Structures are given as C-alpha cells and as structure tokens.
Amino acid sequence: MRKRPLALLTAAALAAGTLAGCGSSASAPTGAAQKAEASGKESSQAAEGKTEAAGQAGGAAGVDVSGATGEINVWTNLSQSEMNFYVEEFNKRVPGVKVTVTVMPGNEYRTKLQNAFRTGTNAPDVATFEISDFGMYKNTDLLENLSTESYDAEALSKDMIPYVDELSRDNSGNLRGLSYQATPGGFWYKKALAREYLGTDDPEELHEMLKDWDSIIEVGKQVNEKSGGKIGLLDDIETVEQIYCSYKGAPWVDENNHIISDDFLMEQLNLMQRVVDNNVDARADQWSAGWTSGMYSQDMFILIGLPSWALNFCIKPGIPEGEMEKAADTWGYMEAPAPYQNGGTWYGIYSGSKNKEAAYAWVKTMTADKDYLVNGLAGQLGDFPAYIPAIEQCIEEGHTDIVTGDQQYFQSFYDTAMNVKADPMTKYDRQAWTSMTAQMDLLAGGGATPEEACQGFKEDMQRIYPEIVID
C-alpha cells in the first residue's frame, strides 16, 4: 500500500532548516512569447482595478500598526524555523509586540486548537490555518470579523489576488482571516530531461506541446517508449489528482449536502486510468523518499504538478547540502492545462482574544507589509505573496532562483493566480482529498476500476459524514 502524509505537512517537515535565500537579478521581467506578454498585461490591468477598489474600501483604511504594543500568542503547525524567521521580521517592523509561538504537529494542532477555541481556555490570539482547516472555521463566530471598522482589512484584501480575497471571506462576505501567500500551480520540470525527451526546455514551447490532457497522454507514451520505460513524463498519477481536484469548479459537497457529480469524478478517474495504462507516469509515489530523490539524485520523471511552494518545499530540499551550485538552472516552471491553486495558509484572530490590536498588527504585517513580503517572504524564503503590490515589485526587480536559472517565474505565477477560480472551502475538503487519494491508490495498483473507485469514494465520504446525499 502506498503511504503518504498530507502534502503540506510533509513539505513543511522537509523544509525545516533548509530555507535558503533566493537570488534576484536587476533586469526587468521579459515574456518568452506574445501570449505571456498579453497575459501579463491582463494581470496588470486587473491589478490596477483592484488597487483602485482598495482605495475606496470601507473601514479604517491605512491603520498604522507599527506602534502597537502588547503580547500575543501565535499557534501554528508550520515549522519552528519558519516561525522564528517570521517573528524576527515582524519585530523589525513592530518592536512593541512580544510574540510567543507554539508549534505543534498537524493532528495534535487541530485537536488542541479546536478545544482551546471552543472552551476559551488558554486560546491563542492568532492561529494559522491550512486552506481546508480555514474552511471549517470561517463560518463560525470563533474567528474575529476583520471587515468591521476597527480594522483596515477590507482595503488590504481588495489588493490581494482575487481568489485569495474570495477564500478569505465567510458566506456573508466578511473577512475572517488574511493569507500571506498565493499558491498558483503548474508543472515543474527537469530541464535536462525535457531537452533530451521533449526537444526543448522552453516553458512556452513545452506548454504548447502539453496544453491539454490528451497531448500529455500522447507525449507520455512517446517518452516511455524512447526511454525504454526508464523515464515517466509525469512523476505519479497523484499529479493528476493535485491538478484536477484543484480546479473542479464546485465544492466537494454542496449546501444541500449533495456530493460532487459523477461526471467530475469519472472524468478524473478515467484520466488516471489512461495515465496508468499508457505508462505516462513513473509511479514515483508522490511524497515518498523515492519521489524526493527523483528531484535531484535520480532521473525518474520530467514533470511534477504542484503549486508555487513546490520549489522551496519539495524540489530544493531534495538537493544535498553543498550541491546547490551544481543544481543551478536544472528546473523550470510552465503552465498546466488549466489554472489551479493548491494549499495556502491563513492567519485568523480568535474572537475572544484580549489582545486584538496587537494580534492585528501581526496579521497585517505578515500579509500586507510590502517591504517584508518582497525582501523577507519572497526574497529570503522564496514564497509567493498574495498581496499584489508586493508581487509587482518582485516582478519589477526580476525575482529568480538559482535552481531555475534566469527564469523569472513570478510572472507566470501571477498570470496563473489572476485566472484561478476559487473553489468553495468546506468542512468536507480534507476528508474528500483523503478519500480520493485512497481510491486513486487502488486504481493505480489495479485494485479498482474507475467506476468502482467512484463508488468507493462516495461511500467512504457518506460513511464519515452520514448527512451526505449520493445521487
């Protein structure tokens, strides 16, 4: 049986202690083709519209948090090294707030946070939420409403990537948290293998070659034949899941408790079956040690389908210490068949906090302080911000990374992110991914047909959530 931890938790664990700085060049960003140039213009025009709207937003726009004082407790399941960096950067800008951080493993964190919030006993002032967890909390009164006039969060969020702004809101349109990152996704690819088996490592040429799933299947068959079965175009069929389930266009379970349609489920599962039958993937078992070694020390696959965080939390941790220079210009980034996002972390303030002013100083600084986001989050951690003014400055300054050479991939991230349609987050999301992955594993091993996997997914979801209606 294939075993895998939750993707984001594995990524955070892999990254602990490996948060290397990212280089940047002085040259302005350039598009590799007219399509990229046009897409960039569309992103800029959309951003200009959001900036204007932000200036007109209600609330206490322009609240200065630099003089805030007090003490706050922040709970998280992010790594200790990450949080140490965040606290140091925060106190450079807000020296009057003392921050105590409590780091816990994922499952323990969820249980303790839920208990603390519901009882009000020793609850944190601020907590981090992975995207699916935020979906469970944002429609409760446990998180502070940041759309009130006490905060300027409305103005800030209107200047975020649109899908991030949308996902930050409850069903009534009120902000219940802010995210410091956008997580648009595409394909990351190994340049040497792309040149050998696909004839190019240019991201625009590769996207044209692999612009839809039918093309991916056909090219994957050719790669398998040319390599004698040694190289897969894709790493694993979980790449299909990562992408497909991230642009499904509907909630896993709707407001009437109806599970997502068979049409969506069967389309995805049939595609997975085609990938397996045609040896398009390397069966590298995403999130396994073997998969990680395929990032650098072994040639197993050409493409992985993961979001923006994959470079710093999946690819670079697979590079042995002392070999970063050798790994220079070995990876590239290209668009996937459809724009998608996966993951993301939100900050929320506990509604019962006695330190809301200091807590908001943390949330605002971590999510919308342009200097920090450009020079800290992006410049040192390589993370992609959600705040558009920071993104545009990163692009203007020519953000690059040693592993991707001179490719200024933040422009591609930006273009993708501006076209992502936010899928509604619900309490069912985490389990839906778990159940789908279990059925995917059965299918990959020949233990289920697509039809059986579809039925198995629905029955598993209904077993855990009896209120779910299966049509």
Automatic annotation (TrEMBL):
Residues 1-20 form the signal peptide. Keywords: Cell membrane, Lipoprotein, Membrane, Palmitate, Signal. PANTHER family: ARABINOSE-BINDING PROTEIN-RELATED, POLYGALACTURONAN_RHAMNOGALACTURONAN-BINDING PROTEIN YTCQ. InterPro entries: Bact_solute-bd_prot1 (IPR050490), SBP (IPR006059). Residues 21-62 are annotated as: Disordered. Residues 45-55 have a biased composition (Low complexity). It comes from the Bacteria. This is Extracellular solute-binding protein. SUPFAM superfamilies: Periplasmic binding protein-like II.
